[in-house]
Amino acid sequence: MFIVRDQQVRALVRDALARWIAAHLRRFFPAECAALGETGLRERIREGISRAVSHGFESEVHISQYLDLMFAFGPDFDSDPALPWARALLAEENLTPDIRMHRLLEEGCRHREGA
Prior knowledge:
Elements (H helix, E strand, L loop, with lengths): L5 H23 L1 H25 L5 H14 L10 H7 L6 H17 L2
């Protein structure tokens, strides 16, 4: 009999998610991904997943969106003094992850547009 433990399943899911995110990032942030190289990209994704989870984002969608924000605003966007809106929204523990991510994406769009 072959037994797959819960920890092994989680590792497989994380690996599949990381591969999907890598393909997504290569499509939408090709220059940034090329500059990182394959090893750097894998490390940035691993770091991004960890940071997203540390901020309470656990769904694949939220983790992917968190990495989009990292690539759009820099790997330390969550602690960058030039991006106080990000730090403030991430600290809003009374908001659900859905609402926090929605607001992060909205503010990110406003910031990119210069509003």
